[in-house]
Hints:
With 185 residues, the chain is mainly beta. 8% of the residues lie in helices and 36% in strands.
Amino acid sequence: MNKVANISLGSSFAGIGRIGGNIPVCFLEKMEDIEGFKFYLTIQNPDNTDEYISIFIPDSYDTMVDNNIYPNCSLKVFTHSFSDESNNSFYTLEGLHKSSLTEYKEVENGIFGFVTKAQRPQLIQDEDYFFRKLEEDEFTFFLQIDEDYYPESLISGNYILGYGAIYLYKHNINGKIIAGFWQYS
């Protein structure tokens, strides 16, 4: 079974996270870690309801494209406990309308959503050089975040990932969650 969470337009729905908006409060004391990045989303870890995963995107799209594969994937991933949204808008992605993420729902294998926990990713480009080094270094696929599932009015302007997807991986021994790679159409 896969677990999926989707976007609920608007920010009043109390789900398991959000896409867009301001950085979580916990990053106000970690500004040096996110300098040169914009906040993308925060979502509850599907394996640990006390832990949240936040993803930050580089300011420069060219940097993202040039560094899209482990061990040099330029996206930053942080795990933390629940943290409210701050008032700091410096790291907010312009054109991305803040919206809540629905609770995870169990679905059949092969069914995907905006956020999907599955045994295997649904790749845009099915080339093993994307994940070979990750597997050699004892990482396993964990979550996929896919722009194909954006609601129509979520974004004004260009897609953040060029109509792409982020593939998070989890280390088999220490449990660290990283951005393994991202792909675009």
